[in-house]
Write a structure and sequence with these properties.
This protein is of the alpha/beta class. The longest helix is centred in the middle third of the chain and has 21 residues. 43% of the residues lie in helices and 18% in strands. Bound molecules: 6-O-phosphono-beta-D-fructofuranose (F6P).
Amino acid sequence: MARLVVVSNRVPIPDKSGTAPAGGLAVALQTALAARGGLWLGWSGRSCAEDAVGPLQMLKEGNIDYALTDLTERDVEEYYQGFANRVLWPICHYRLDLAEYERHEMAGYFRVNRFFASRLLPLIEKDDLIWIHDYHLIPLAAELRRQGVTNRIGFFLHIPWPAPDVFHAMPVHETLLTSLTAYDVLGFQTEHDRENFADCLSRRGLGKRLDPARFVVGERAFTARSYPIGIETDDFAALAKRAAETTLHRRMLQSLDGKQLIIGVDRLDYSKGITQRIDAFESFLNRHTDSQRKVTLLQITPKSRSEVPEYEAMQRAVAEQAGRVNGALGTVDWVPIRYINRSLRRPALAGLYRMAKLALVTPLRDGMNLVAKEFVAAQNEEDPGVLLLSRFAGAAQELKEAVLVNPYDVEGTADAIAGSLAMPVEQRRERWKAMMKTLRTNDVFAWCDTFLGDLAESPAPQKASPAGIPKPARSAETRAQPLRAAAATSHARWS
Ligand code: F6P
């Protein structure tokens, strides 16, 4: 079996703390890689001065070899906080109003992709399958091809791909679209995303669609399909069952004092619809006054990307909103919303999902949303809780038996909360069984196997530097790095 080489911006750095890695990407990839083994290259999470980027840090844990690189402060500012999170993220989540395009950040994005390519280059072996993840690294294959790499390279986008009118509002959209043609397989979360991508190509007159999944642009042919990402369904279910025996579980039950638990778990991000959700919960309490003092919403929201101004503003807004609702409706012995900004360990989270009668997973736009899937897997089959799910989450394409809502419709969501809490147990069991069947079939291993199966079977590696793959943006500079030497040193330490 060919060695798997994974590249992503964020890597769950092995440590002994046991805290959950940030975001679905890290959880899913860690599971998939631990089963198959391989090399995982990404950002160490550290930033340093221009001349202080050291060699790759090599670590090994179980089957996985990690290669971690530092980035400079300027890299992080321009590539991560800048173009990736102030242009690509809002655009892919349909927030053109929040996109702040600046040329020097775009140049930084291409420069860092070139840097990742040069860090990876010395580690690549002839038959490696290379699997690149997410919007931070769209041009990475084009950079690798330019440097002579002919291996099979796949790309999976964890976030939505927007409709052409939105994507084409981004000044460098054509360069990014063409960069994607350097891959052999492109993976999207849903059919809807894949079709949006296909529409972007055809609107720009780029290439031809040979069949639903095969495209040719210039001299390169590639596959584009949807591969909905999953979870480790049975393991997560077992984890939730075990968590019900723990002290934390008992303490939480005690503190609820007979009230029904409603749960929301999201990174603090404007795409997650947290403010609309709190509005809906408040509206539910005001419209169904008999529910006051009988329910508690636990909103677990680890802070995220705090250096990006939109996120900083949101931290204040959500904290104020939760405080206002608690002030207006709470009593001396009842707090309607428990709002916490820390991330919990996975066993604790699994136990809380199992205890909850209802999960509110109401993003305004989401690639997939693995919280929805984990909540379902964690339920007690005799008395399962209800999943209230946004139509705009990728998970809604699979979990059709959830209570589907439009998160922009605050009163509609409030009524759906009331309906869900009153749902008879037979109906809850029926819906849960159907969703669990889907989750068992489309688990994280199936996601990984299907994608890698397509990648391994994709036609023999094509020309290294096909026409049509764009040159790097003019203003993007290359940082000189003693990379081969650095990697060779760290390789020695590693093996
Ligand atoms: O799933 C989307 C994603 O951006 C992942 O790429 C990332 O690991 C996760 O969300 C968390 O975001 P960040 O790495 O910016 O904290």
